[in-house]
């Protein structure tokens, strides 16, 4: 009987210690979910603002030198978006702490074919390249939940020029995930194309379902990426 009482006291002491820890963990997780939701919503607002500025100021039908350095100098983003100068130019930081990388991208099969052709020779590329008709924004260094929430957003609801997205995780075994498939496969006129690539990210023209997003965003730390593509 005494042994049972002693065991009971030990269990109770353990629970007294454990319950506050569990409570703090639950509160912290709820706070993290709310913070992530807030950051996703701020990202939506940022991109709506950005697209309006692009429409107002970027007259060219094609995007050329449409990179993070150019965007950083062009005042296309809200003032509270963090931009830092580095040895390679401006670096733009997303709401989650990683980077927001801008790059040009082909819009159609014909444009992809021509772009890949002139890229074969540096001289030919310099003389013939005049930009591409779509662009991408890549959000790097995302945690699992951040990646999932970004991949589930109905971006076309907010941004009519949205083409599609790619969600992926980067690892030592799969370092090429997250960019090539959305860049070269996700076009406006190749819905039935089978595109082979070392990139195993999940590409979609629609928001991912929760299960699709959880599977695509299989990172354990902050090594997930989401790339959005626009006209």
Q: Care to give the gist of this entry?
A:
The protein is of the alpha+beta class and 231 residues long. 45% of the residues lie in helices and 18% in strands.
Task: Describe the structure in your own words.
The chain is an alpha+beta fold. It has one domain: TcpA-like pilin (2-Layer Sandwich). The chain is 45% helix and 18% strand. The longest helix has 56 residues. The N and C termini lie far apart (76 Å). The relative contact order is 0.14. The mean pLDDT is 87.
Task: State the separation between the terminal residues, measured CA to CA.
Answer: 76 Å
Tally of DSSP helical segments? 8
Q: Which residues form runs of ≥5 with pLDDT under 50?
A: none
Q: How much beta, percentage-wise? A: 15-25%
> How many domains comprise the coordinates?
1
Q: Roughly how many Å is the radius of gyration?
A: 22 Å
Derived from helix and strand composition plus strand pairing, the structural class reads alpha+beta
For the residues shown, what is the average pLDDT?
87
Strand order of the largest sheet: 3-4-7-5-6
CATH structural fold name: TcpA-like pilin
Number of DSSP-assigned strands = 7
Please name the fourth-level CATH homologous superfamily: TcpA-like pilin
The residue fraction in helices comes out at 40-55%
CATH architecture: 2-Layer Sandwich
What is the H/E string? HHEEEHHEHHEHEHE
